[in-house]
Specification:
Layout: H1 2-28, E1 60-62, E2 67-69, E3 127-129, E4 142-144, H2 158-161, H3 186-192, H4 206-213, H5 219-222, H6 228-231, E5 239-243, H7 255-259, E6 263-267, H8 276-279, E7 285-288, H9 290-299, E8 313-316, H10 321-332, H11 347-350, E9 359-361, H12 364-373, H13 392-401, E10 406-410, H14 440-452, E11 457-458
Parallel strand pairs: 5-6, 5-10, 6-7, 7-8, 8-9, 10-11
Antiparallel strand pairs: 1-2, 3-4
Helix pairs in contact: 4-10
The structure holds 2-acetamido-2-deoxy-beta-D-glucopyranose (NAG) (2 copies).
Length: 462
């Protein structure tokens, strides 16, 4: 029996290693579908093409285990994730799901609605967007529409500027960025169950959702910049620094400039200690998924856990029920009830002072919207489509784009990325790696485009 089980483990390990190897080889070739770097647009004084750095590296999602694997590619040693318990393997192929309920009726809400002042309106079954005639059902370019009043009266914020750019058709002003207690209804569960992983609630039962998301039941949980009224006056514009972990930040001396923003966003293996001069010391928002956090803790020497300070908020990017369970544990200061992190003490990651008000969770409609409208990689046309999602760093930067009035991006990948190591904290040079679960080249050209349109300021080497 035991021998048999061991044999199965060995076979599974060997085939997944082979699988990862094939994926890596596949991706070494410059994919023909990656968007070419943009030419400098006239009228922009900065030349974005000169900058370089990389997006936060992320573990590769592995098909067989239903989970993702840490970079760098594993050695021959058996990997604990290969034999992950089936509770973690909830990543169902999108095409296996039944499109199910019809979205007829209130399907099209029209991208932009005016009049966003006043208290938050009650949640309504309003949907925005709409699939193109040739979109397969797993795309699901239809989203909940939400009336969250703007947090500032900034006249020249991203939301007003975007209307004059090439992004105006893609940008949905009323997309919900975060999910919270009131999002959980049977109707929403039925709608979102069609989409697996980070793109929906596929594989997560209604009871788990209801019992976990109920802890996010404060207005702070639905606003990314929940403490804005302590930070700026009514007419000021919120300024956010979004910090990726790219090697371009090494020796950048950008720390003071980064800390000078109202908000400082970081992600995954964001090592601050010892790098303050280059990357700053504050963290107001730390973005991660349970999987990327655990993998970062395993992979990056020197990364001891998420930053902790009184101003730090934790923003979960959920792609399993693990994330919901860890989030609930963090809010209640109790051990994780079940699943892969069972019995883990959440204060180990988020400190003893964390409260539910400091926790947030991205809405699956937001992640799907980013994938469909900003990072629709041709990986979605391959058999790997279920593995693909925007990287954690990309979600963080695009969430800032949808929430802040001004965004400066530091440590994100630029066309000269080969000049820099993968991370600013790497002891010696290591090249940026490309895997099928993200499209870092497409993300890189999106950052170029957003910079050229004046919607973000992308840090480049000076
Ligand atoms: C959230 O709080 C409101 C008001 O305090 C309450 O009526 C509602 O039932 C709560 N929702 C959940 C899901 O706990
Ligand atoms: C509000 O903030 C802006 C920008 O920070 C500043 O220029 C302005 O003087 C402030 N207004 C008041 C009333 O404090």
């Amino acid at each position: 029996m035991a021998l048999q089980r061991r044999l199965v483990v060995v076979v599974v390990t060997a085939s997944s290693l082979l699988c990862v190897y094939v994926l890596c080889v596949h991706l070494e070739k410059p994919p023909s579908w990656s968007t070419p770097p943009l030419k400098d647009a006239p009228g922009f004084s900065k030349a974005p093409g000169r900058s370089g750095s990389s997006a936060p590296q992320e573990p590769l999602r592995k098909e067989t285990g239903g989970d993702r694997r840490t970079r760098p590619p594993p050695t021959a040693a058996a990997h604990p994730e290969v034999t992950a318990p089936p509770t973690a393997a909830r990543h169902q192929p999108a095409e296996a799901r039944d499109p199910g309920v019809s979205e007829a009726g209130s399907r099209y809400q029209g991208g932009d609605r005016a009049g966003t002042k006043g208290p938050p309106a009650p949640q309504r079954q309003q949907l925005i967007g709409g699939d193109g005639p040739t979109d397969p059902p797993f795309i699901g370019d239809t989203y909940k529409s939400e009336d969250v009043p703007p947090q500032t009266e900034c006249r020249d914020g991203i939301r007003s500027r975007v209307k004059k750019t090439a992004f105006r058709g893609r940008f949905l002003e009323h997309i919900p960025v975060l999910q919270w207690a009131e999002d959980v209804t049977r109707e929403q569960h039925q709608r979102l169950s069609r989409y697996p992983g980070a793109h929906g609630w596929g594989g997560i039962d209604y009871e788990t959702l209801a019992e976990t998301l109920s802890v996010l039941n404060a207005s702070a949980n639905r606003l990314l910049l929940d403490d804005w009224n302590h930070r700026g006056n009514a007419s000021a514009c919120s300024r956010c620094a979004v910090v990726g972990n790219g090697g371009i930040l090494k020796e950048s001396k950008a720390g003071e400039e980064i800390d000078g923003h109202h908000y400082v966003f970081r992600t995954n293996g964001a090592i601050v200690k010892g790098f303050e001069r280059d990357v700053g010391s504050r963290t107001t928002h730390y973005t991660f998924s349970t999987n990327t956090l655990m993998n970062s803790l395993r992979s990056y020497a020197g990364f001891r856990g998420p930053p902790q300070s009184t101003e730090t908020r934790y923003v979960f990017l959920p792609d399993h029920d693990r994330d919901f369970l860890l989030m609930k544990a963090a809010a209640t200061h109790r051990a994780v009830e079940r699943g892969r992190e069972r019995a883990e003490d959440p204060t180990k990651y988020f400190g003893a002072d964390v409260s539910a008000e400091k926790l947030k969770m991205y809405h699956p409609d937001f992640i799907r919207y980013l994938r469909n409208r900003f990072l629709r990689s041709s990986a979605l046309k391959t058999k790997y489509k279920a593995l693909y999602r925007p990287s954690t760093g990309a979600v963080m930067l695009l969430a800032a784009l949808h929430s802040c009035d001004q965004v400066s991006a530091y440590g994100f990948m630029t066309p000269d990325y080969r000049k820099y190591s993968d991370h600013y904290y790497d002891k010696s040079y290591r090249p940026v790696g490309f895997f099928i679960n993200h499209d870092l080249r497409m993300e890189m050209s999106l950052w170029q485009q957003l910079h050229q349109e004046g919607l973000i300021r992308l840090y480049g080497h000076r």
